[in-house]
Specification:
The protein is an alpha+beta fold. The chain is built from 3 helices and 4 strands, in the order E-H-E-E-H-E-H.
Length: 83
């Protein structure tokens, strides 16, 4: 699976969870999502980040990552990337 970071304050937790069941909230307005879609543009489109819906946000592919967070977050990322 591909892992993406989604940052968008206008997207609600429920809407994101329905679109991407494999997700982990990092903080308000920021999630990691796992998906079989191939591009950041596809992720953004599925979340309605476009001129029609006017939902502003950023999607970044997580090819490499580093930071300080709880152990379960890193385990989740590794499990997604292994699939």
């Amino acid at each position: 699976m591909n892992v993406y970071l989604v940052a968008a304050e206008a997207i609600e937790d429920v809407a994101l969870a329905q679109t991407f069941p494999e997700h982990r909230k990092v903080q308000n307005g920021v999630w990691l999502v796992a998906s079989t879609v191939d591009t950041t543009g596809e992720v953004a489109e599925l979340l309605g980040m476009n001129d029609e819906h006017r939902r502003f946000g950023v999607v970044v592919a997580a090819g490499a990552y580093f930071g300080y967070h709880t152990k379960d977050l890193w385990e989740k990322i590794e499990a997604w990337k292994a699939r």
